[in-house]
Design a protein that fits this description.
alpha+beta, 172 residues, three-stranded antiparallel sheet, GDYXXLXY domain-containing protein, globular, 31% strand, GDYXXLXY
């Protein structure tokens, strides 16, 4: 009886994990391409071994808009929200306004989900991991390329320079 329970539990766990992996692969394959401009990061934490700390310029606009919305709230520790961006001809996102789920968007606008943690805005991640010893390849990074699904959830795919040339290896 215990062996049967363990086998069923193992199969269930494997099924859930594989379903999640398949969902992320679909997101990467079918999501809309959006570039977010990188913003400066504390130089002491920019390159730490085999990863680069990331901060996005649009996050500065989101924090400012949140402060304007709630000027007395100095904490801004934890929040989840949506930002409305417009895409230029290179598919680079530009801040328009904070958004709401039910808000209708113009054709040129997109909705992106963000998380605010400890006063820092995050889109999918706040770090980019790379192979040890390859830090110099990513030093000229100016943009993060994301795949965004219909819910506005971004997944970081790669880093790009200011000319939107990919840094590193394999393209998705």
């Amino acid at each position: 009886m215990n062996k049967t329970i363990v086998a069923v539990a193992t199969l269930l766990i494997l099924a859930v994990v594989n379903w999640a992996i398949w969902g992320k692969e679909q997101h990467l394959a079918e999501g809309e391409v959006v570039y977010l401009e990188l913003a400066p990061v504390d130089p002491r934490s920019l390159m730490q071994g085999d990863y680069m700390a990331l901060n996005f310029e649009i996050g500065n606009h989101i924090r400012q808009a949140l402060r304007e919305r709630k000027p007395d709230d100095n904490e801004m520790e934890v929040a989840n929200g949506q930002v409305i961006v417009s895409l230029d001809e290179r598919r680079v996102a530009h801040f328009e306004r904070l958004g709401a789920e039910e808000e209708n968007l113009a054709d040129s606008e997109r909705r992106l989900r963000y998380r605010l943690r400890a006063g820092r805005v995050k889109f999918a991640t706040d770090a980019f991991f790379f192979q040890e010893g390859h830090a110099e390849r990513y030093e000229p990074a100016g943009y993060g390329r994301f795949r965004v699904n219909e819910k506005g959830e971004p997944l970081l795919v790669a880093l790009y320079d200011d000319e939107l040339e990919r840094l590193g290896e394999v393209e998705r």
